[in-house]
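Researcher: Let's run the pair from yesterday's discussion. Sequence first, then tokens, for each.
Model: Starting with the first of the pair.
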Amino acid sequence: MTTPIPSIDQLQTLALPAPVSYMPQTWGWWALLGVVLTGLAAWGVRAVWQWRRNRYRREALQRLAQLRAANDPLGTLRELPTLLKRVALSMPGPQVAGPLQGDAWQDFLRSHSPRPVPEDFSQQLAFLAYAPDEQLLALPDTQRQQLVETCTRWVEQHHVAV
């Protein structure tokens, strides 16, 4: 007995199953979608608000990068105290940094920095602002770099009360 060999003519079209909707069938999925979209919108609004709020910080860091690239040690050292004071004045919040000097300025810098600042940082900044050019140029390169790095680190990392 021989079994017949199947032929292509014997194939039949299979019936397709009924289409399934991708729409959620219960109200819980709609509620979850609403919560997720609301959360994403709130996160986006907060991110934009924080980005706009930190504009002063980005501009100060850009200016510090320009000062480093300018390769003008005297101009860089002279501008550091002014730049730090401008950053402190631009910080959002109730801080009043304008009239601060000496120990009060040192306390302000220390209280807003997550990392320790040098104990005589405000005196170093005053020296940079008012010392004669010859004394500034006589500073060792390591001390100059350390001052610029300390200022850059403070601008990058200082915290602001919300």
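Model: Moving on to the second of the pair.
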Amino acid sequence: MTEDAPNRLNDLERALVEAARTGEKLVCDGADGEAIRAQVLRELLLGRFGPVDPRGIRVAGAWITGVLDLENVTACAGAKLTGCLFAEPVSAWNARLPWLDLSRSWLPGFHGDLVEVEAGLWLTGTVIVGSGKGGAVALPGARIKGSLNLDEAQVINSSGAAVRANGLEVSGSVLMSGAGLTGAGRGAVQLFGAHIGGNLVMRATKITNGTGAAIRAGQLRVEGVLDFNGLKASGDNFGGAISLLGAHVGGDASFLNVEVVNRAGLALDLEHAQVVGKVFLVRSTVCANGGAGSVCADPVSIDLNGFKFGALEASPGQPVSWRDWLHLIRHHTKSYRPGPYQALASAERDAGHDGNVRRILIAQQQDLRQRAPKALGNWPTRCFHWLWGVLAGYGYRARRTALALFLAMVAAGGLGVWAGHVTDGGHHVGERVSSFSSPYGQECTTVELVGLGLDRGLPLAPTGVRGRCDLNPDTNSAALFTIAIWILQAAIWGLATLALAGYTGLIRKST
């Protein structure tokens, strides 16, 4: 402004300049109909009306006309413009500000690309109705040393993102609890590649996008807690209504009572994401392809491939277990992937729950057979895989294998006894060897018949009973008993190998 600019200020603007010098708060009631020009605020922040009190410019309830143009401005003081009505957007491209508080104001857009804020940026309870692909709240590449607060804010953009903050760096936390965020295009909330030194909190936040993702936050890095408790997100995006592809969370991640709906594909994409702390997941609803209601509305909803986490927990009174997570892996993922099973097994192993680990890894093998059978090979291999699961729990249930081995040996002995009671003419199928060439055979004792079955069925350690009692090859049924014993012998060979491997821990591999 020119040197005589103060003389051209209206009464309200003069009061603003005086309040800025003394650090007082200017409260406007709007009764006189006067407005503050955005240009006056800009000149104040540049120090062109003289020194500004360290408490900054503080205005409440003002009507501000014109564009508040802070592009490339290095402000001499912070500004707290609360409950104000802005006629035009705020532009802070590449600005350097001590702090900026626009809480409970109304404005048609905030453009803060590459802005640097020393203390914090507050948009708490602010109503922002913007337009354009750049975003109603645009903060790509912004650097905020304090926190970014959008709690209770209402942000609407019918032609682009509600909040676009790709590459954002915040040393504190990003807070969006209770906010209503409606956007369009690639993502209503865009945090791709953002780095948050504190927490990302979206408690009871409602995010809606009818033409893309609700949250697009690939490669997001949160050093603290990820709190999505009570989040309601609705999107229309094949890649996920909430996409956290490759994200990193240094603390816990909480998804308690989350509701996610996607009309086009995945509800939640956690592929290659990592949570160092615990994952809380209770009573959440995740639906894909327009599903609604319970968690089972649609089997294709979450991508957990490569997702890693420290442990699973639940809030008091809302039980969650490894079974709930296993249910998500088996019934709410697009295809079979071994990674989610291994991550869950690792978490349970670290917690000392070895029994749960075995159940998880057995479920993995069952899912492999059901959803990716071609990975096992041809049909004989798949049949063997199924039999291996039934008899040995894929090597994770050695006691079942030992029991099956015992039953196979009992069956072998039973075949021997049965052979001693099947007759063919004057001979028995199982009889004393010395009577093979006689017109009539001689019966073996029951003990000898049991020994005959074990001697022929056991791969190793023969009993030697066949020198006295054996199958008579001249009988019609001898060949059938021989084939049956061969089958049992093969089964005993396999079961013995599986039992040994199970007890020694040789079979503990992932597929």
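Researcher: Give me one sentence on the second I can quote.
Model: The two ends are 72 Å apart (CA to CA).
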